[in-house]
């Protein structure tokens, strides 16, 4: 319906000049990441996204995936697209080369994932969930399990799924009831129902490898009694060939507001006695293992918010340039103009553009922290990167996905009445984006994770380290010449002051009054996100300022970075200060009503 | 799917103690509005909304209206519901008793309209558009036109529609191209295509009376060359019986993101030579006449945002009380609790409740200003009320409809994963609510209307009068005892200061730099809305405080008003101060990029 062109110049600028891809490329094992390779990979991925995935986005929305007699048929064109994607080697990007992976850093894998998501969010969910399964098996699978499954999950010959949720176990994964009973041969019989299983059944591949959380007979109650099992749709023989169909089936597909092409399955295990499962690692450590992939999955969902906003932005720009309506606000000419000339339309586009760029930088920064946490040979640096990644992950997940909803809503608004008409396509982005603040831990859960686990637990150490880093940037940009730089310096500094005050309040208050902190946690996360976005935007402005002086510089592109940054300073950063009193003073009435006063 | 119970106690409290229904009831011609009548009317409307309209809301969403061979079939049950509504006399509530209307004030009509909208927004659009047609004919129709059409439009035997938009004429209604050519007999032949015509075709009634904007052959260009015509679907004989089918047809229904049951028609006039139309009033005065009903229509759309949020709130409360998930944040009990016990869920519910109540008060206040503008025998008071209504209308339309989107989004979020599943029903409210910031003048247009026409044009006079009124309330509540009152007083005062500063800036800047004002207009409207909401909330708190001391007071209800007000003071009012710099400083980069830098 609508075109998508990967914003490769923006991506490359952010990677090279804001986040520091070259530093990541210097980590052990990443020497393959040369500038040439980066260019080539981004260009090729961009073509697949533009030519194959993006044109199917609307088709997928309108047709959805369909279930008939236990068989799921994906939307027209999706299976072919999947094989173009898999045969191009794209499924293997970030994984272990020992099993066919390309071993590229997350800092490069995320921009690629961004393209799939912008082009076709429903499609992108299949690789994303598969990634979780691969990471779990890479980290915790036995040699036998790796041998049987990993290579094919990495090549894309099969796909993997994550089976956590049950009707009574959503945010509270400790409430899982699915049972695993041991057989004499070391396998287990799995019985139970799982819901909200993304690509739990589909027609892309011959086999699907389900990773399933279940309780063994001797398990203790709660999260410490949950084990992880591999449960293949078809049993896999020693030689890798497929054996009998396992006792599991797709019992239903959800009828969702968005991401229609992504089959969200109800999975029934063990209708006929039990599905055969294989324990991963040790009993009762399933939740612990899950956390291996959780940060990464949350980063991936944060990326979705930004990526879908980018798609909506491209469409809104296109419409605003083409739609002619009403005369210009100023001047004498009565002829109608393209609506991009109207200040409020322009403001909406700038809101989208400036926050998408900030969110993109945050996603890539979080990815670079992940790479450093895993690979930095300096133990202190790796530890600091790990702490930074832990801190940034809930912020990236929640801030970027809230932005996904807000910015796709602006995308609708820019279209006026046409935005509400489904054929325009703007509404799809808005509907698709709405899931991201919910799944992979609601944004309320992210906010509590930030406040309690990432800030309170270490006494604010990681947060204050980032604040110091941000403050250095604010000082540096304030020292540069020009009103734009000075304004960013001042507004960023003010936002940082607000975050610092809020962080101190969280650290001081959290132990005595958890309810107060929890009441303000969402606003605290928001002000932190807005401020980090400002910090990264300031870095982009300074980089653009420097690059402008180089011969052959793309002045128009670099100039846009500075103007866009100024807009962020003027219009977005003030949110942080505005939220400070909400965080620190806003809790008094939150719990004041009795239930029956609602 | 989900129940709706009209919040009659809240409505009555707001009418009696915040907005002053008794003052309105004292206006000439409204002496029928006794407390008994009000009670009876609200109760009866509440029953129809709960028992007839609300159960059809989900049915309407899933079935939509369907077009086949030019005939539109509305969703199952809608036609019957329409007749229950019309036969109950509800269609006649605010209209001229000379033509069968009940002559009730808008201050009472709006709460009733709120119930229809909360119960079934798609249904409510039919009476709402009909209301526009009735108002136009009441004010500008000839005696003959009134005689032929008004009585039946008021009784509901027929319905009326508003035909403004064409593909090239959306926000810019001056670009209308539909033609009207005079016949010798004084009638006109209408040819052209209209789009986005709400209930342009349906099966509720035997006839549909279209009010159509068109250009006559001698018309000047632009908005000053547009005339208004009555174009009935079936010609009406002198005796009121139906004659021949007119040359107009429904050429298509839009496929929309929400309000599926409301048929949004493409209307083709004059495929076979021209539809017969009758000029309303004088040639070239169509746009001027439109403004007769525009304020009221915008108020009605503002109401939609609040009403749909109320429906979403009721559903979210119900879910939050019933859904058990995770242990309480504090205490030792490991048993899971209803999610309403979790602070962040509570925060979301309070965000909904506090802002819905503020928005409701604003809608009713705007209605009372309308009644006073029309009926207050004191010319100065009527003039002041008219100015207040003019000032409040764009704020009510835009702030309440933005809240409609934001609060229905919170409603989805409270449901977690279930919120994204269509059968839950929360998603429908979110989809339905999204149109309200767009139609009847986009919220960007409302913001410009506020800044340029309602504030700049009179040098801020009406705005400063309201600011003075609000300041008196801030002073009064600050003088009452208790921390809740003091906090509201302080935070309201701070918000008023911010609005006053912004208003001065608009007045000072607007003439020299329209672009600067237009760039900040949406934020200016927002801070004004938030502050008026605080002012009305403060009035509610003081009223509750006073009523609490009366014998037989409902302490639980009144106490909730104070706690909810405190929440508004803590969490919502700080937005106003936060937006001040965005309004006054935020414009510098808005127009900075050239088109090709997007």
TrEMBL record, chains A, B:
- List its EC numbers: 1.3.99.41
- Residue ranges annotated for the Acetyl-CoA dehydrogenase-like C-terminal domain, each copy included: 466-593
Task: Cite the Acyl-CoA oxidase/dehydrogenase middle domain residue spans from the record.
Answer: 162-265
Ranges for domain Acyl-CoA dehydrogenase/oxidase C-terminal: 284-451
The Acyl-CoA dehydrogenase/oxidase N-terminal domain extends over 79-157
Q: Which family does it belong to?
A: Belongs to the acyl-CoA dehydrogenase family.
For this entry, the protein name equals 3-methylmercaptopropionyl-CoA dehydrogenase
Taxonomic classification: Bacteria, Pseudomonadati, Pseudomonadota, Alphaproteobacteria, Rhodospirillales
């Amino acid at each position: 319906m609508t075109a998508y062109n990967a914003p490769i110049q923006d991506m490359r600028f952010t990677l090279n000049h804001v986040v520091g891809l070259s530093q990541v490329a210097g980590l052990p094992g990443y020497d393959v990441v040369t500038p040439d390779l980066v260019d080539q990979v981004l260009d090729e991925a961009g073509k697949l996204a533009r030519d194959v995935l993006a044109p199917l986005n609307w088709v997928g929305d309108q047709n959805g995936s369909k279930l008939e007699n236990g068989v799921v048929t994906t939307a027209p064109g999706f299976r072919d697209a999947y094989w173009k994607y898999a045969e191009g080697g794209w499924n293997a990007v970030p994984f272990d080369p020992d099993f066919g992976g390309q071993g590229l850093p997350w800092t490069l894998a995320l921009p690629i994932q961004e393209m799939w998501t912008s082009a076709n969010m429903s499609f992108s969910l299949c690789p994303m969930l598969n990634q979780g399964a691969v990471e779990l098996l890479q980290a915790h699978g036995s040699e036998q399990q790796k041998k049987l499954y990993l290579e094919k999950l990495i090549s894309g010959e099969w796909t993997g799924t994550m089976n956590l949720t049950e009707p009574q176990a959503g945010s509270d994964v400790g409430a899982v009831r699915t049972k695993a009973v041991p057989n004499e041969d070391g396998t287990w019989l799995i019985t139970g129902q799982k819901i909200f299983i993304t690509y739990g059944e589909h027609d892309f591949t011959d086999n699907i490898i389900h990773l399933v959380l279940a309780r063994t007979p001797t398990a203790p109650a709660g999260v410490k009694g949950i084990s992880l099992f591999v449960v293949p749709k078809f049993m896999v023989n020693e030689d890798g060939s497929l054996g009998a169909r396992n006792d599991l089936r797709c019992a239903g597909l959800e009828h969702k507001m968005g991401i229609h092409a992504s089959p969200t399955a109800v999975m029934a295990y063990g209708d006929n006695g039990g599905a055969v499962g294989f324990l991963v690692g040790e009993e009762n450590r399933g939740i612990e293992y899950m956390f291996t992939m959780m940060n990464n999955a949350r980063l991936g969902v944060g990326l979705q918010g930004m990526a879908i906003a980018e798609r909506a932005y491209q469409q809104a720009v296109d419409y605003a340039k083409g739609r002619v309506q009403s005369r210009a606000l100023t001047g004498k000419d009565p002829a109608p103009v393209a609506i991009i000339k109207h200040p409020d339309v322009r403001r909406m586009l700038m809101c989208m553009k400036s926050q998408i760029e900030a969110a993109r930088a945050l996603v890539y920064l979080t990815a670079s922290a992940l790479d450093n946490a895993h690979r930095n040979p300096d133990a202190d640096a790796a530890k600091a990167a790990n702490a930074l990644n832990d801190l940034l992950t809930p912020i990236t997940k929640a801030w970027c996905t809230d932005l996904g909803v807000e910015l796709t809503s602006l995308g609708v608004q820019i279209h006026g009445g046409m935005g509400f008409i489904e054929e325009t396509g703007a509404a799809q982005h808005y509907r698709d984006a709405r899931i991201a603040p919910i799944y992979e831990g609601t944004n309320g859960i992210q906010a509590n994770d930030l406040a309690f686990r990432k800030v309170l637990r270490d006494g604010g150490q990681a947060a204050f380290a980032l604040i110091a880093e941000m403050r250095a940037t604010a000082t540096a940009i304030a020292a540069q010449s020009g009103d734009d730089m000075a304004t960013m310096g001042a507004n960023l500094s003010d936002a940082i002051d607000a975050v610092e005050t809020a962080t101190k309040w969280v650290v001081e208050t959290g132990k005595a009054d958890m309810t107060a902190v929890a009441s303000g946690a969402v606003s605290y996360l928001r002000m932190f996100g807005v401020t980090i976005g400002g910090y990264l935007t300031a870095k982009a402005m300074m980089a653009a300022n420097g690059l402008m002086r180089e011969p052959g510089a793309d002045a128009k592109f670099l100039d846009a970075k500075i103007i866009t940054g100024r807009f962020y300073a003027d219009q977005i950063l003030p949110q942080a200060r505005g939220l400070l009193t909400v965080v620190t003073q806003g809790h008094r009435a939150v719990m004041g009503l009795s239930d029956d006063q609602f």
